[in-house]
Design brief:
heterodimer, A: mainly alpha, 10 helices, globular, B: alpha/beta, Rossmann fold, 4-stranded antiparallel sheet, 8 helices, 10 strands
């Protein structure tokens, strides 16, 4: 019950306020533009529509997740709510999960919004005789990949929001973490196992959405995102308890 | 019985509170007074379990109707926090919520049963004179009214430990008298700690005073007059003689 109470409050606070809606529409506009550009670029090729849609959506996702999650604990710290939260009989994991899932819900609204944009574009904007290859399964698999990535980004943003006092610095740090952490992880793996770094793309997670859209399910990416999200959420819970011990909210 | 046993919490070499020993019986209201930065809020934070003591313990012993005594420590689990009502110095509230919705949200967080939530919220609003403002957005209220919402929040589940950090700051005389009446009513059954700078303002609701000086709890059994004398700066010649 406590968890649902927190989640409902956090989700409504994000969806109803300008802090959630403005980034959502900005991300939709940016990714929509990217989608149109990709569609023009893909003209005459056999690139499937779910792949184009997935790639455009995947590039807007870290921005939105970083904005949505970065306000999490930073906002509570700004208004002095953190100390009150410490004395409330609620476990740290509920606070953290509530904030992470609220940011994740906003990200999924964005994914659905991009789906609607794509549907509108393909039905009204493209010529009637245009050939648009693609399968519903591709959309479904790409959505699964995007949902897993959104959870990881939201968790990372929430973790970062525990350590910074201003929303701006939290947003920048979480965005950089979202963009740089996967290539850094790939680089580490390459160095550890002696694989050439050129095997990895610059944005490995975004590019893996292409595979999903094509029906090629890469379990490593999915498990990596989910396990990464679990680790980040657990670390955020620990950090919340550590804040109570150190009282750095003062 | 609420017991602070050698409780220490230091932010750095100068800030915080060191080795605080205090016992508060049920029905007692202790006014914690001291200068700015003396460590009052830290002491109250320890009593409210918002801070975990770096050494020492904060314990609440409650006796039920069968005469069994149950002890909860502030640094172990959430059991202690279930009994705490806390109003912090800044009286923070979620500004975008309506008064009633905000209080309902806070009641649910305290783990209150769903069937009792409405009654608890109504009681707290009625006690703090917020019935007429229940549909108002909290962020649009004046500072004094927001403090009233924060007080109602602290009283929501009729806590055994009521910790009020500077509740009279920014509050007019009429509202102060109302606050004092409410605190006296609740304080008849609870362990109450109230902080402030002026013992005169706290006199209406406190049974005794504790004095915090330079990060240490130096006195715990003062009356209002003695506390005021201790807080009044001495003239320079008297200091010289001393």
């Amino acid at each position: 019950m406590v968890f649902w109470t927190i989640l409902r409050r956090e989700a409504f606070q994000l969806v109803r306020s300008v802090h959630g809606l403005a980034p959502l529409f900005l991300a939709l506009a940016g990714a929509g533009g990217l989608l149109v550009w990709f569609l023009y670029r893909a003209e005459g090729t056999a690139t499937s529509l779910p792949a184009i849609w997935g790639l455009a959506t995947a590039f807007g996702l870290p921005f939105l997740a970083a904005v949505a999650a970065s306000r999490g604990f930073t906002q509570d710290r700004e208004v002095g709510m953190l100390r009150l939260m410490f004395s409330t009989p609620v476990r740290a994991r509920y606070w953290v999960l509530g904030k992470v899932l609220a940011a994740w819900i906003l990200c999924m609204i964005y994914v659905i919004g991009m789906g609607v944009t794509c549907w509108v574009l393909t039905h009204w904007a493209l010529p009637a005789d245009a050939q648009v290859p693609g399968l519903w399964l591709g959309f479904a698999l790409a959505t699964v990949a995007l949902a897993a990535q959104a959870l990881l980004w939201s968790g990372m943003g929430t973790l970062v929001s525990l350590f910074f006092r201003s929303s701006a610095s939290t947003f920048l740090i979480s965005l950089l973490s979202c963009l740089l952490a996967p290539p850094a992880f790939c680089l580490t793996v390459s160095m550890a196992f002696g694989r050439p770094i050129t095997q990895w793309p610059l944005f490995p997670l975004q590019m893996s959405v292409l595979d999903y859209a094509g029906g090629l399910v890469d379990v490593r990416m999915l498990m990596g995102c989910l396990m990464g999200a679990a680790v980040v959420i657990y670390a955020a819970g620990m950090a919340f308890d550590a804040l109570r011990l150190c009282a750095t909210e003062r | 019985m609420l017991t602070l046993d050698d409780a220490t919490f230091l932010y750095d070499a100068t800030g915080g509170i060191r080795g605080a020993n205090l016992r508060v019986s049920p029905g007692e209201t202790v006014g914690v007074v001291g200068a700015n930065g003396a460590g009052k809020s830290t002491l109250l934070g320890l009593a409210a379990a918002a801070l975990v003591p770096q050494s020492g313990t904060v314990t609440l012993a409650l006796t039920d109707l069968a005469g069994r005594t149950r002890k909860c420590r502030s640094d172990m689990g959430i059991g202690y926090r279930r009994h705490v009502g806390y109003m912090t110095e800044l009286a923070p509230v979620y500004g975008e919520m309506r008064v009633e919705a905000y209080l309902r949200f806070r009641t649910l967080l305290r783990g209150e049963r769903i069937l009792r939530v409405r009654r608890r919220v109504m009681e707290a609003m009625d006690r703090c004179g917020l019935m007429g403002l229940r549909r108002q957005t909290v962020g649009r209220l004046s500072l004094g009214l927001r403090r009233r919402v924060a007080l109602a929040e602290a009283l929501l589940t009729m806590p055994s430990v009521l910790v009020l950090d500077d509740p009279f700051a920014g509050v007019d005389a009429m509202m102060r008298a109302e606050f004092a009446t409410v605190i006296r009513e609740v304080g008849a059954r609870a362990h109450v700690l109230i902080s402030g700078h002026d013992p005169e303002l706290l006199e209406a609701c406190c049974t005794r005073f504790a004095l915090v000086e330079n990060g240490a709890l130096t006195e715990t059994e003062l009356d209002a007059r003695t506390a005021r004398e201790r807080l009044t700066p001495k003239p320079a010649e008297e200091k010289g003689e001393a």
